Amino acid sequence: MKSLRAGRVQLRDSYARIEGGQALLLKMNIAAYAQATGFGAFSPERTRRLLLHRFEIDRLAGKLEQDRLALIPLSVYFKNGLAKVELGLGRGRTMYDKRHVLQERDAAMEMRRLHAEYR
């Protein structure tokens, strides 16, 4: 909790999954607390269990199965002393979409570069 409060959490490449009727958060990196030395082995990317109501788990499991979506953690925040994770449903890009986004990004960067040279 102290590392979370210090903002030493990284959500990049993390995702959530429903397995065995439980919601699990995988690959979320929470760094070890700097002042806590000698308290045994610490795994920063261990699987963490999310506490959700049964109807929430069932609803998310149905959406994940039916629509082939991914469950992505968007943010971590505190409310009444508890750490909460905001989850979002998202669909991955197809290969065509990825190439299209890269082309647009390159074109925008080239335009900015030309505009800066012109000035």
From TrEMBL:
Name of this protein: SsrA-binding protein
GO terms of molecular function: RNA binding
One Gene Ontology term from the biological process aspect of the record: trans-translation
The organism's taxonomic lineage, starting at the top: Bacteria, Bacillati, Actinomycetota, Acidimicrobiia, Acidimicrobiales
Gene: smpB
Main location: cytoplasm
Coiled-coil residues: none
Function according to Swiss-Prot or TrEMBL: Required for rescue of stalled ribosomes mediated by trans-translation. Binds to transfer-messenger RNA (tmRNA), required for stable association of tmRNA with ribosomes. tmRNA and SmpB together mimic tRNA shape, replacing the anticodon stem-loop with SmpB. tmRNA is encoded by the ssrA gene; the 2 termini fold to resemble tRNA(Ala) and it encodes a 'tag peptide', a short internal open reading frame. During trans-translation Ala-aminoacylated tmRNA acts like a tRNA, entering the A-site of stalled ribosomes, displacing the stalled mRNA.
Source species of the chain: Ferrimicrobium acidiphilum DSM 19497
Subcellular location: Cytoplasm
Entry-linked Gene3D superfamilies: 2.40.280.10
